[in-house]
Amino acid sequence: MSTTISAEEFTNYTSRQKELNFERSKKEFKIDQEVLRAMPDGTRVESVEASGASAWVHSNLRLHPYPLGWGEYTSEPGMWFYLCDYHDLVDELPEIDSFVSIVAKVHRESMGQEDQYGFDVPTHLANIPNDNSWQSSWETFFANLMVRMFQVEEKAHDRDEELEELKESMLSKVIPRLLRPLETDGRSIKPCLIHSDLLPGNCMPDANTEKTIIFDSCAYWGHNESDLGSWRAPRYRLGKPYLKEYQRVMGISEPRRDWDDRNALYAV
Questions:
Q1: Which of 23, 48, 217, 251 is 20 to 30 A from 10, comparing alpha carbons?
Q2: Structure pTM?
């Protein structure tokens, strides 16, 4: 079982500075009985301050559904569920200015709160657990993320020699060429809170408030520009207008000439 911590605990400690006792919250909360009836008999629901989600809840002024509970199906050991506030969402692209301002606000206000890259627990991109082990180098942390992705691919589809060649080139050439300059020759970046899955399907307007709701985060502390990789894919319909607005608000990491290539790497 993954360790969980509250949003308040998350924002008020550094794991390298002091010890924390990790305990499940006993706080009571209300869950619609229709939701409970839809679950297998004997399901136990426990209150939660889910680590990655709570980090974003705390950072973006309740524009992330509030985490309520999680637990394991007693009838299906190893099968888990997660519950959060319900929002009636509109399936359309978020408005550029408001969406980018939310993302930029989280990046800007969290930047430098951690001095390493990673997260205290494994967070998941869909069903893939990130390698969130803390690293002092962004290049090393991102390389570890990619290694995990290649491992998952090989497990699912067996070893492929062409993919192995691509993996070696990415790890030995592409990542060092594009990420090492961010932290060498007098340049530096600061870790900030990353959502890591900012697809249109995870960022929608609320039907009642019209505010953009951002959810389904796979949080870690990383380079702010890495959150923009998914915006590059044509199928997500975000693209240059959103990227240009983010650049206008947040600027571009040095070396600026590598921006587009870095974005392509983050889009992998």
A1: 251
A2: 0.74
Beta strand 46-47 with 80-84: parallel, antiparallel or unpaired?
Answer: unpaired
Predicted confidence at residue 127, as pLDDT, reads 73
Question: For the chain, how many residues are written?
Answer: 268
Round to whole Å and give the CA distance between 4 and 260.
36
pLDDT score for 40:
54
Cα distance between residue 67 and residue 82, in whole Å: 8
CA-CA distance, 57 to 66, in Å (whole number)?
6
Tell me which DSSP letter residue 64 carries.
S
DSSP line for 129-194: EP----BS-HHHHHHHHHHHHHHHHHHHH---HHHHHHHHHIIIIIHHHHHGGGGSTT-----EEE
* Of 52, 102, 3, nearest in space to 222 by CA: 52
Phi, psi of 149 (to 5 degrees): -65, -45
**Residue 53's pLDDT is what?**
46
Q: Are 203 and 214 in contact (CB under 8 A)?
A: yes
Q: Mean pLDDT for each 10-residue chunk of the chain (268 residues)?
A: 39 31 37 56 46 47 68 76 80 87 90 90 80 94 93 88 92 97 96 89 86 84 94 86 95 96 94
Distances in Å between the Cα of 172 and the Cα atoms of 45, 65, 147, 151 are: 46, 40, 12, 17
Q: In whole angstroms, what is the distance from residue 87 CA to residue 208 CA?
A: 9
Q: Could you say which DSSP state residue 95 is in?
A: P
